[in-house]
Amino acid sequence: MSEVIRLENIWKIYRVGDVETKALRGVTLTVNRGDLVAIMGPSGSGKSTLLNMLGLLDKPTSGKIFIEGRDVTALSSNEVADVRNRKIGFVFQQFNLVNRLTVLENIELPLIPRGIPRAIRVRRVVEALRMAGGDESWLPKRPNQLSGGQQQRVAIARAIVGEPEIILADEPTGNLDRASAKLVMETFIKLNNAGLTTIIVTHDPEIANCTRKILLLRDGVIKSVEDPNPEKCILRTM
User: Fold this and answer.
1) Over 60: is that where the pLDDT of 238 sits?
2) E-assigned strands of the chain?
3) Domains of the chain
4) Residue 145 DSSP code
5) pLDDT tens-place string over residues 184-214
6) CA 162 to chain centre
7) Strand pairing partners for 70?
8) Rounded distance between C-alpha atoms, residue 42 and residue 205, angstroms
9) Per residue in 120-166, pLDDT tens?
10) Which member of 48, 53, 135, 176 has the lowest number of beta carbons within 10 Å of its beta carbon?
């Protein structure tokens, strides 16, 4: 399998006055095309910081990040933003949808800066919403008119409408009941089966056990890489 993301000896140190916090301590990690990976660990272990590095949302204090073999730590901020916008889609625990916009307008947001004509944007929005397990009847609604599980599928549609190669999800089922979490996890598996490399930060072992690889993070270090137990996946336990 070909490499999509590689981190080499990544350190991330935050300094506030005289206080120094080492959020990541020499993390080295390779994610291959088509991987479905869970990142687990206690609060403060560095999971969100690691996801920010994988998503090019923050720069490491030291170390290198490669996307498809390209050293992005050597690029300008504008070049990094272009790689991030074209290669990576993000899904967040809080959905991050704009309630004054319709579902259609929320999903098309990543396409507008690309200058894509409106008719093509609408077609891609409909396709993305279908892929995310949503319904076209949602398109004229506001996000706050939908359930939490429906909003998260809208957020997934927004993440994939730009046709990224990588999906990064930060606690995507953290605000959902188990039935909605199951539907969202089914959606991630379907997208991964269609070829999208997917990395999920989660506290929930029933979500992590639906993936193909579990990274256990503690004190900013990957302590182990474990095989999931499919029998404990949320899709099997309900």
Assistant:
1) no
2) 3-16, 19-32, 36-40, 62-67, 70-71, 88-92, 166-170, 197-201, 213-218, 221-226
3) 33-54+86-237 (3.40.50.300)
4) G
5) 999 999 999 999 999 999 999 999 999 999 9
6) 14
7) 67
8) 12
9) 999 999 999 999 999 999 999 999 999 999 999 999 999 999 999 99
10) 135
